[in-house]
Write a structure and sequence with these properties.
heterodimer, A: Glutathione S-transferase Yfyf (Class Pi), Chain A, domain 2, elongated, B: particulate methane monooxygenase, chain B, two-stranded antiparallel ribbon
């Protein structure tokens, strides 16, 4: 566990270690906090670099979709990122399926708890990604549209928001969904409706992007952010309301697991 | 299992304590980021324009549509936090998350990326509204009374809460023979792609005033609507907090 929280066997700050506390170090989830931190830093660096690239080139090479510059700086980037995210997504989900646990009935409470912690870390990565996309990237698009007239479906902020950020959120969502389905007994045996909802929301953003662009080129040329044409995104954002149900499902099971450990440790 | 049974109750208790702390360290930031993400996209695409620009914060639409959109997330997640965890922080925490995200975005996007001055694009303040909701919830322990009293105040107080921030921008001035506000002038000076449309939508009416009875009437109506909105979204919160499982997908 708390493998993560340094435990030197002290019972209280400054106190001498007791035998029981020292022995308790045996009970540890041994989570790879270094890898978690590296992943988080890597993700923030990726989004930070993307943002820097946007600021550096959007207004200099991204104003005209029909210019050669736009193809060089933005369309090529879009094609590359979509391919990379797609390949990584298929590979990750395939790997999780191929290496699925086929003997979950033999899973110890400690191992199951460890997997729940992995799921929490994956949910955290997804949430950070969602925050960056739903707030920073989405509102950079709001800013862009108030400065430049909407010209085509592909703009620098759209390339970042709809063809990088949203697919990244879908990628993370697909990974944590498949992780739960292949490694956690209660998620493998049944379908968690809240979990399915928070995965379906980001996925359905892509068809809604299609409707959004179709509508903007057809009947609504403006970019009022609060306009009804954008409300589909709001409803899909609401899918994250179900995170509450998912957390309750997870914590209930984690609590059961710890209780089973307490029961097993109790003297007969 | 065999490894577990060799442990003593003290070891398991110590393990549980450390596990709880670890989960807290992970889940609390996760939940706050979740609130910031969901609230940001929800607020931006329902009433974002009103909050982005100082000249959008009028007396008629802004105080009406804002509390309606703003009361949704405190209702949904407030239910989860109070009903499941007995934490009366749904209003304050969600609105704090929105406010923090809004400040970061306004500075990075509208000011840094777009070049608009911060005093044209700063976010409104709503944190006190969340505090009111949570306070009423703690005192009454009732969703009914929280919606009726807290929801009404939530809707009615948006304008007076922000008045100290907005007053300077509503000072009338004369420009080329026309009377307008300081906020209007800023809007005309920092041209955006659809300003005439914005002005037409906001100010479509028969009589334009700088104050008078328009705002109090709007506040009363907004309070009434927010009561209904809050009750409805608390009910939605009770639905999405359920632990629903399906045996079969198809």
């Amino acid at each position: 566990m708390a493998a993560t929280i340094p435990n030197d066997g002290m019972t209280a700050k400054g106190a001498r270690p007791t035998k029981a506390a020292a022995a308790a170090r045996m009970l540890s989830l041994n989570l790879p906090w270094g890898k978690f931190s590296a992943g988080l830093v890597g993700m923030l660096l990726l989004f930070g670099l993307y943002r820097w690239y946007t600021e550096a080139t959007a207004f200099t090479h991204g104003m005209d979709y029909f210019s050669p510059d736009f193809r060089t700086y933005w369309m090529n980037l879009m094609f590359v990122q979509l391919i990379v995210i797609g390949v990584v997504g298929v590979a990750s989900v395939s790997y999780l399926w191929k290496t699925r646990d086929r003997h979950m009935e033999a899973l110890s409470p400690m191992d199951e708890l460890r997997r729940y912690m992995f799921l929490i870390v994956q949910l955290m990565a997804t949430t950070i990604c969602a925050y960056i996309i739903f707030s920073l990237y989405a509102e950079s698009d709001a800013t862009w549209h108030q400065i430049t007239v909407r010209d085509t479906d592909f703009t620098p902020t759209h390339v970042g928001l709809f063809y990088f950020g949203t697919p990244m959120t879908i990628l993370f969502s697909a990974i944590h969904f498949m992780y739960a389905r292949t490694r956690l007994p209660q998620f493998a045996a049944r379908l968690s409706v809240p979990h399915a909802m928070i995965v379906a929301g980001p996925i359905l953003i892509m068809p809604n992007v299609g409707f959004n662009e179709w509508g903007h080129t057809f009947f609504y040329a403006e970019e009022l952010f609060a306009a009804p044409i954008h409300w589909g995104f709001v409803v899909l954002g609401w899918s994250f309301f179900a995170a509450g149900g998912l957390l309750v499902q997870m914590f209930s099971r984690m609590s059961e697991l710890v209780r089973s450990m307490e029961t097993a440790a109790r003297p007969a | 299992m065999s490894a577990v049974t060799t442990n003593t109750p003290a070891q398991v208790a110590d393990f549980r304590h450390r596990l709880d702390i670890t989960v807290d360290w992970l889940v609390i930031p996760l939940v706050i980021m979740l609130f910031a993400a969901v609230f940001s996209v929800h607020f931006a695409l329902l009433v974002g324009d009103w909050d982005y620009w100082i000249d959008w914060r009028d007396r008629r639409w802004w105080p009406l549509v804002t509390p309606l959109a703003l009361s949704v997330i405190p209702g949904v997640f407030g239910y989860l936090l109070w009903d499941r965890l007995r934490l009366p922080v749904g209003g304050t925490l969600t609105i704090l998350a929105l406010s923090a995200a809004a400040w970061v975005s306004r500075y990075m996007n509208f000011h840094g990326f777009g070049g608009f001055p911060m005093d044209m694009v700063f976010p409104s303040t709503f944190i006190a509204l969340g505090l009111i909701l949570d306070t009423v919830l703690v005192l009454t322990r009732s969703w009914f009374w929280t919606g009726l009293i807290g929801g009404y105040l939530f809707g009615a107080l948006i304008y007076p809460l922000n008045w100290p921030l907005l007053a300077a921008y509503h000072v009338p001035l004369e420009l080329h023979g026309n009377m307008l506000t300081v906020a209007d002038l800023m809007g005309f000076e920092y041209v955006r792609t659809a300003i005439p449309e914005y002005v037409r939508i906001i100010e479509h009416s028969t009589l334009r005033t700088f104050g008078g009875v328009v705002t109090p009437l709007t506040a009363v109506f907004a309070g009434f609507l927010t009561v209904l909105s809050y009750w409805f979204w608390v009910w939605i919160g009770s639905l999405v907090s359920r632990t629903t499982w399906l045996r079969k997908i198809i």
